[in-house]
Amino acid sequence: MHNIHIAGTGIWYPDDKINNDELVDSYNSYVDLFNTKNKEAIENGDVIQMQQSSVEFIEKASGIKSRHVIDKNGILDNKRMMPRVNNEHEDRLSIHAVAGINAAKNAIKQANISTNDIDAVIVGTSHAARNYPAVAIEIQNELKINGYAYDMLVGCSSTTFAINNAYSDIASGLANTILVINPEISTPFVNFTHRDKHFIFGDGCAATIIQKDSTSEKSFKIIDRKLYTQFSNNIRSNYSYLNRAAIDTKNNEDLLFHQNGRGVFKDVCPLVAKLITDQLELNKIEPKDISKFWLHQANGKMIRLITSKILGTDDFDSSITPMPIINFGNLASVGSLFAFNLDNDLEAGQKGVICSFGAGYSVCSIIVEKN
Ligand SMILES: CC(C)(COP(=O)(O)OP(=O)(O)OC[C@H]1O[C@@H](n2cnc3c(N)ncnc32)[C@H](O)[C@@H]1OP(=O)(O)O)[C@@H](O)C(=O)NCCC(=O)NCCS
Fold first, then answer.
1. Domain for residue 17, yes or no?
2. Model pLDDT for residues 321-359, shown as the tens digit of each residue
3. Residues 195-245: tens digit of each pLDDT
4. Stretch 304-320: mean pLDDT
5. Mean per-residue pLDDT of the chain
6. Residue 229 domain-assigned?
7. Hey, whose CA ends up nearest to atom 30 of ligand 1?
8. What is the pLDDT of residues 122-172, one digit of tens each?
9. 139: in domain
10. Rounded to whole angstroms, how far apart are CA atoms 101 and 287?
11. Which residue's CA lies nearest to atom 15 of ligand 1?
12. Rounded (10°) CA dihedral 226, 227, 233, 234
């Protein structure tokens, strides 16, 4: 009987980094400009006065201290408040493909394979770069990989759902080795003029090699996968190709990422804790025998709450829940993979859980065991 493994992972993130002091300074100067410009309308009650942001709130509410971004200058420019990016162009690689190839090279090296060994490429991301052709096919072409490639979208669970697809393709005999790539270039879609959202996201990309019977030193056997979805509008983007033809025009800001953060917190924490608890029970694994919980990186408090519900105590060693969110912010679907990549030095036989959750709602939990 064959096993299917995570044979290696790789991450990539941009060099630009914004800490909370810089972000809040820029946001507050935008607020001052706005309030000065709209002084009269604010006094007449026609416009709501904007409130300043604070480093203390951001760190207390989310745990985030800094984030890597594709363009720091554009985001911090109080007359722009968004990164500067190029439009997609046929003569050059897309921004998602560049990020994906960088992460893929690291994963291929760690898995100790070559591109000739890869049978398929799956790109999973929260934000489609374009409608077609698939970024996965662009990357396949650039890395000279034979076989097939496709893109998929599952919000903040795109990474783990893509790993799940790769597993299923291998289990069904379609392929032996699959390159999963998850570019999460979120900052172009963030409204940096919104106090409750401007601090949340960073940019990054992860790649994972899923392989039948891997012999790589860093490999983990996939023991079990559990997927769950439940419809919610609490995290939503209305951006679509339909916007161009829509008769009820929305302004650009209404189309961006928006969320009811408290609603998400309230709904998702118990949902995820129960899903992982049930999954461990079904696999006859005691929660205390899980050495690492590599969880979705949306909020530090959420990660602690979910873990304490699973373990039945909030008295646990914090090193079992790696938190790259502190330095990278919310990386959409690659948060759990960043956590895994940066902190997975387990002994043979030790187990861990990789779990993403977010828009949809969508949840995917994968139990792995170190080879
Ligand atoms: C988004 C999130 C960090 C916000 O934290 P929160 O504690 O719920 O904060 P709220 O937005 O409810 O605001 C609490 C208070 O802080 C204030 N506040 C909000 N943003 C602020 C900021 N940047 N600076 C200072 N104060 C701020 C609010 O005005 C509010 O004040 P009030 O109580 O007087 O009304 C948190 O809800 C969260 O992370 N939820 C999960 C989101 C998630 O998982 N998303 C998945 C996406 S992949």
1. no
2. 999 999 999 999 999 999 999 999 999 999 999 999 999
3. 999 999 999 999 999 999 999 999 999 999 999 999 999 999 999 999 989
4. 97
5. 97
6. yes
7. 196
8. 999 999 889 999 999 999 999 999 999 999 999 999 999 999 999 999 999
9. no
10. 36
11. 57
12. 30
Per-residue tokens: 244: 């161009």
The bridge status of strand 177-185 relative to strand 120-124 is: parallel
Residue type, 125: T
Asked if 239 and 189 touch (Cβ cutoff 8 Å), the reply is yes
Ligand 1 centroid to Cα of residue 167, in Å, is 37
Residue nearest to atom 25 of ligand 1 (CA): 53
Top mutation candidate among 196, 198, 234 for ligand 1, by most atoms within 8 Å of CB = 196
Place of tokens 């949840």: 363
- Whether residue 205 lies in the annotated active site: no
CATH number at residue 255: 3.40.47.10
Q: Which of 82, 164, 180, 93 is nearest to 129 (CA)?
A: 93
Q: Residues 3, 49: contact at Cβ < 8 Å?
A: no
Identify the bridge partners of residue 222 per DSSP, sorted by sequence position.
Answer: 368
User: Model confidence over 35-85: pLDDT tens digits?
Assistant: 999 999 999 999 999 999 999 999 999 999 999 999 999 999 999 999 999
**Token output for 123:** 């790109």
CA distance 283 to 252: 47
In whole angstroms, give the CA distance from residue 163 to residue 343: 19
Distance (angstroms) between ligand 1 centre and the Cα of 61 equals 6
Domain that holds residue 312: 221-370
What residue type is assigned to position 339 of the chain?
Answer: A
Its pTM stands at: 0.96
120 is a domain residue:
no
**Structural domain tally of the chain?**
1
Q: What is the CA(58)–ligand 1 centre distance, in A?
A: 8
